[in-house]
Amino acid sequence: MFLPVLFAVLGAFIFLALVARRNEAVTRRLWEDALSGECASLDAVRAQVMQEREMADESYRAADLARATQQPDEAARLLRVGARVVESCADTLPQLLRSMSTLSRQAAAIAPVDPLSAARFKLAELRGLARVHALLHAFVVTSRERLAFRLRVLRFAVPAATRWLVAAHYRTAAAPTNAKEWLQLSNVRSDMGTLTQESLETLRVVLRSLAASRLSERAPAEIGR
């Protein structure tokens, strides 16, 4: 009588192990399916943002080369071209951030987000904003509220930095031999790049949160099959 009971217990364990492995495989596949479309969207948006940034960077590098080879008039011309490029692309990130605010409301749960780091910025205005963000971030309780707060900070910072970047281009173009203006332009460019990276990181969090919500809705039905 002992052997049949033993075989029954072993059979039950084997059955449970097979079910667990199947459920794990289903869950992994669901994650891959849920994230594949989101990652494609993220890649498309990132490619557009980075392409626009590269256009602006290209004009800056050409202007900097003209300055280094003692061609101030050409440097000024290229800086004005760069300013127009920045102006023409000024709506991309703000529109993306607005879309993220809408998308995030559709997620059942939000992945954790960090505040902006003041150490990553060179402009005093953005360092101050990042410090305020970090301070208030500690008083915001839920991940959803923290994401919404982060998006509001970025929606304020990105247009402001874009205006400063355009103005810095024109100021430097008006004084193409002024080293101080070139340094300020370099600092604004660096901070604009940081804000772009922070915006794309926020987009990644939103998409992962949406994918997780989709997974939680599909997993019970899939696993139960």
Describe this structure in words.
This protein is mostly helical and 225 residues long. The chain has one domain. 84% of the residues lie in helices and 0% in strands. It is built from 6 helices and no strands. Helix 5 packs antiparallel against helix 6. The radius of gyration is 25 Å and the shape is elongated. The two termini are 35 Å apart.
Please give the structural blueprint.
Elements: H1 2-68, H2 72-88, H3 92-104, H4 124-137, H5 143-174, H6 179-223
Helix pairs in contact: 1-2, 1-6, 2-5, 3-5, 3-6, 4-5, 5-6
Structural class: mainly alpha
Helix fraction, binned, reads over 70%
Q: Which regions contain 5 or more consecutive residues with pLDDT less than 50?
A: 1-28, 218-224
Number of helices: 6
SSE ordering? HHHHHH
In whole angstroms, the N-to-C terminal distance is 35 Å
Dominant shape: elongated
